[in-house]
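Below is how a single chain appears once it has passed through the pipeline. First comes the sequence as given, then the structure the pipeline wrote out for it. We keep one example in the README because the format questions we get most often are answered faster by looking than by reading.
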Amino acid sequence: MEKRKFTLDGSFSSVQKNRRQFASPGLSAGSGIDRRKFLAGTAGGMAAALLNSWPLQAMAAQALPVAADSDWDAGVVRHLLPTVNDTRILLKTSLLRPLATPPLLRIEGGGTTRRIEGRMNDTSGEFWQFYAEDLTPSIHYQLSLQDGSGASLCEPWPLATFPAPQQRPDQARMMFYTCAGGPQGSYRGIGDRSGNLPTEIRNRLLRRGLSFTPDAVIANGDHIYWDLHTWQGENPGGLSAAGQRSNFDYQGQVFGGSNEAAMKMAVDSQIIPVYGTDFRSTPVFFLQDDHDHWENDSPLSYPVPWFQLQLARATQQLYYPEFLADSARPAGLPWSMRSERGDLSESFGTLRYGQLAEVLLYDVRRTLNVGDLNAAFLDSAVEQWLHERTASHDTRHLVHVPSNPPGWSAGKWGEWYPDVLDRDTGSLTTSVTKPYWRQGWLDQHDRLLQSLTDMRHRTPLVISGDLHAIGMGEIQRSGSLDLRANPVTTVLSGPVGTSIRGFPSVVRGIGSTPSAHLDLNEQVAPLEEHGFTLVDFLQDRTEVRLFKWDVNSQSVDAIDTLEPFHTIELEAPA
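Resulting structure:
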């Protein structure tokens, strides 16, 4: 299909004009992006010049294709990722060329037109964000981007705000997945691939999920893989191969100079072509996990070093939205801030869809405490917020979405559970002490499960990521807690980009296994395949559908017609 062009004045396409305006020498509007020529002809070229002596420079020579949408003209926009609540929009975007003056976001709908000036996220003008508040709930707005002279940067697109807390929508659909990051892998056919899934396949999986028109998307952790240190092998704690290639100045600031250029080169290819502009009309909620702090979870990685915290925060600042304010979420939670963009949170989010559903998102890595006396994954204020919202009665459904999954163990250090791999038997055991693991983590886990099973007015549901698997089970006991009267359904949402070595059975010698601390009725034992989960919230029930695609037995074309392989209905209490 020929790409449709739009015009605002009946003459030559405004986007085409902009493409001419933004084209570097050697680039034409219809050509693919040659990243070497692009960098050489932009402010990004100055950053690339800083890396001439770096091994990381090779990354700049890689093409960075952005998936094309034949029905929408992206113009000079590389990626668009919006989030919303009932009255606010926060949008992150990047452009093919830097802008010297702030672009404008035009928002039309509800009988009004607003213009929001962009806020520059980087130091070169390639990355921008837009924040709008005092919008009307449940309105389909029309958005458009313009440069400072009024020329369009891309085709307009629609985006809707969520229902207000007092509204009663009949249904909502949400898409969940995990582990979409990773450097570009290779794929030569069924069963013949290496590394992470190629970008094109990840993009295709996500597009299949979007074809079911979810009202929101939850990306649960591991959006990038660029671990700076090793966690096993001959040199634990030393610089990894990625760390050596990056050659960061750990005593410098992230933004400005070579550190910013290196960060962009490491992250751009893991996010921008995977998402492109496909999600422009679908609100996204990005929850960070261990690899998003540029490290694997190991005793050598926590507390997270300050420079890597800055890398994690900078990645979020550039590429995907923080969590918008919510009246029922305390403004003073850790890693939250009050600014001209309202009360934003980097690590703890709320997806509220009227009176129908509330999704609580929480990163267990950012506040992880490893001390003997105060060991916990979550800060006490965060845990209190979770308990209070779980006990609330103002939504029909409530779901916990932690970055670390309850239910299963792979024997790794940074889990809720004490299970560890017994090399002699090849199975998990609790009879051997797990090095550096803390009882306080499990105690907090049990308190959260107690809160969920006490929620008799709703069906307890947890949807998580991290374990690179698709699975589902029902927790009926946790330690001394008897949950059988109101068991907790736990779901592994499915990975999108995992490499072969990312699967627990390969890297750890054992797949995801129910913890000995639990009685877990596995409805779907964890499958190390790629996929995603769709959840439909209705007034009387919740429907959960699991999707999977097997790189070893299915063609890429099969992705476009994927259907759920397992579905359950969770009836809501009367």
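The longest strand covers residues 518-527.

See the next section for the split statistics.
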